[in-house]
Design goal:
Shape of chain B: globular
Number of helices of chain B: 9
Structural class of chain A: alpha/beta
Largest interface: A-B, 30 and 30 residues
Helix content of chain A: 25-40%
Largest sheet of chain B: 5 strands, parallel
Oligomer: heterodimer
Strand order of the largest sheet of chain A: 2-1-3-4-6-5-10
Strand order of the largest sheet of chain B: 1-2-3-7-6
Order of helices and strands of chain B: HHEHHEHEEEHHEHEH
Strand content of chain A: 15-25%
Distance between the termini of chain A: 69 Å
Number of strands of chain B: 7
Structural class of chain B: alpha/beta
Number of helices of chain A: 12
Number of strands of chain A: 12
Order of helices and strands of chain A: HEHEHEHHEHEHEEEHEEHEHEHH
Shape of chain A: globular
Radius of gyration of chain B: 18 Å
């Protein structure tokens, strides 16, 4: 041991804006589920605290497997375990469980329709770690795999609901998760998540804002701004991007103007999925997408990145006006 | 979860003469399957016939009356294109209906050139994308150990397939976990799509690589059935380490007119097929 009596406390510089302990809502939800279902096993790839599975590791070590920095192997191992009756939840950052091992996910999980839950953290532009760690195409990739369900909760309030929804579905699910970055408010309460159903958060008849993940809060903020201008928009949380709720076509028809918002590329994600649905349903409305506009980003704080790449409430409002003016 | 015990007898026969006869019949079947359409892998099938005969008739715990019996040993063909000999073995052992072989590689048939689960659970995983089978086998062996199941997992890789990085991710994990219920067989036929593996990418020393990853390495002549039996026995007897059998095989083995010819996607004209069948028949009469 070193002679120093006071050692520097180990803290994680990648977590920003923390005032107090960060709640591990995903980790707690997974552990609750595992206590109730002994088939659940937990796989990680050297990102144990960052994916909140330290709780699982410390409580159910005989069902916890760290595969090291080897995501492709982790996907295959999960497939083998699922074929043996286990329900693997596997974890890494979103980029590494999607783009990095896409073929393995396709062949060893999606094609055989195995009951594996793929859990990715750091969605979109929520990390200072830069372009290598920013998942801007994971929804597009996962969505285009047959048999795959794609779920992104709106925030801490739907983390537990996302776990429950994933478990309720017997088949492969991609969970796109963002950790809470601050202590929870006193009035915090969880909201359920129903696979394949949009959740109307705010009613309105002048337009429809469809958002997923951390863009739901931005959409709610945008609706408030528009309301002050006398425009009442409906806001719907699209926590299941696949299968997409066909109800969206009906909502869009009644509202006229539609803007989608996602922490992801505008290509292949929520916006694309909604456009496909509306066009095929014969719903012709004004339509615009908010998201990363076909560009790679860079390392930076989340507020900085959201400003630079146009992922704020103001951007949604501007897009809404742009679409309405056309 | 209760553990699964393999109550069935391991294999069907260890009689060398019988196994050799089975291997010869598998070879004849490979020729018959591939020749009519020209689809399928002839040289690799002939080369691996002794391995398939030994595995399916002497080694694997299985029940032809119940091909998806839960206690069965798992066999994953990671080089999933080597189906002519694989399907021939499944049919000969009664795990698939022999009459379905006539549909091999035909449109609509589940007997695809790359084995897929459309054929049912006798295909333990869909592995045509090379490098993936060992990881799936690792997951099965890991689950079996945790649940206390005594069934074993066997994975066959091609030697060229070792160029895939994922193989070494799996090698490291299985070695680290000391999964002695897993046996890897490398079909070391020295051939890949672009030719001789050593001219594509030098891979030696292969045995040292596996040893360095914590494996019990057994070198064997993959066309010598007693040697293959002994290697599988040694693998099963090894505790605390996974085993890797490096089985040296000769492409085209058994038909002298084809032996040693490197042709990954080799067509088999009718005349060559007839000659090979005649050679294999001669071998039987000897």
């Amino acid at each position: 041991m070193s002679g120093t009596s006071e050692r520097l406390a180990v803290r994680d510089f990648t977590v920003r804006g923390v005032n107090g302990p960060v709640p591990k809502l995903y980790g707690e939800a997974l552990l609750r589920a595992a206590h109730q279902d002994e088939r659940i096993v937990c796989l990680g790839a050297d990102l144990t605290p960052a994916t909140e599975i330290d709780l699982f590791r410390d409580t159910l070590p005989e069902r916890f497997f760290n595969l090291g920095i080897a995501e492709a192997n982790m996907i295959g191992v999960a497939g083998g375990m699922a074929r043996s009756g286990d329900i693997p939840f596997l974890h890494s950052f979103s980029v590494f469980v999607s783009r990095r091992c896409y073929d393995q996910v396709a062949m060893q999980i999606a094609y055989p329709r195995l009951n594996v839950k793929i859990v990715g953290f750091l969605p979109g532009l929520t990390t200072i770690l830069g372009v290598s760690h920013q998942a801007i195409d994971d929804i597009a990739l996962m969505r285009s795999l047959p048999n795959m369900t794609v779920i992104e909760p709106s925030g801490p309030e739907q983390m537990a609901g996302a776990v429950e929804a994933a478990l309720a579905h017997d088949g492969p699910v991609y969970l796109r998760m963002a950790r809470a970055t601050a202590a929870l408010p006193d009035d915090f309460s969880s909201r359920p998540l129903v696979r394949g159903k949009v959740e109307v958060i705010r009613s309105g008849k002048d337009g429809l804002l469809l958002a997923t993940g951390n863009m739901v809060a931005a959409a709610v903020e945008a609706a408030a701004i528009l309301s002050r201008e006398g425009i009442e928009t409906m806001v719907a949380n699209v926590a299941t991007i696949k299968p997409l709720d066909p109800e969206i076509a009906i909502l869009a028809k009644s509202c006229g103007t539609v803007v989608t918002a996602e922490n992801h590329s505008i290509i292949g994600g929520l916006g694309s999925a909604v456009a496909e649905l509306l066009l095929e349903a014969g719903v012709s409305v004004g339509f615009g997408r908010i998201g990363v506009r076909d560009t790679f980003a860079e390392g930076g704080s989340t507020p900085y990145l959201r400003d630079k790449y146009g992922l704020n409430a103001d951007d949604i409002v501007a897009m809404f006006h742009h679409v309405r003016r056309r | 979860m209760t553990s699964i015990t393999s109550s069935k007898t391991r294999g069907k026969t260890r009689d060398i003469g019988e196994l050799k006869a089975i291997a010869r019949e598998l070879r004849r079947q490979v020729i018959r399957l591939v020749a009519p359409t020209g689809q399928g892998y002839v040289q690799q099938g002939l080369g691996a016939a002794d391995l398939f005969a030994t595995l399916y008739f002497a080694e694997l715990h299985l029940d032809p009356a119940d091909p998806i019996w839960e206690g069965r040993d798992r066999f994953l063909l990671s080089t999933a294109h080597n189906t002519a000999v694989f399907y021939a073995a499944l049919a000969a052992r009664g795990l698939i209906e022999p009459s379905t072989l006539k549909d091999y590689c035909k449109d609509g048939s589940p007997l695809e050139i790359n084995a897929s689960e459309r054929l049912g659970a006798v295909i333990e995983a869909t592995c045509g994308s090379l490098g993936q089978g060992l990881s799936v086998g690792a997951g099965m062996a890991l689950a079996d150990r945790r649940h206390g199941n005594d069934r074993r997992t066997y994975v066959m890789l091609g030697d060229g397939e070792m160029q895939e990085g994922q193989v070494w991710e799996a090698a490291m994990a299985i070695g680290g976990w000391k999964l002695d219920n897993l046996c890897l067989i490398i079909d070391d036929n020295r051939m890949q799509a672009d030719g001789d593996v050593d001219t594509v990418l030098a891979m030696e020393p292969v045995a040292d690589k596996w040893r360095a990853f914590g494996w019990n390495v057994i070198a064997a002549d993959g066309n010598d059935i007693p040697a293959v039996l002994a290697a599988l026995d040694a693998a099963r007897a090894c505790r605390g380490r996974p085993s890797c059998i490096i089985a040296r095989t000769l492409v085209g083995k058994g038909a002298p007119s084809l032996e040693g010819i490197f042709g990954h996607n080799m067509k088999l004209p009718a005349e060559a097929a007839e000659r090979a069948l005649a050679e294999l028949a001669e071998e039987i009469s000897q």
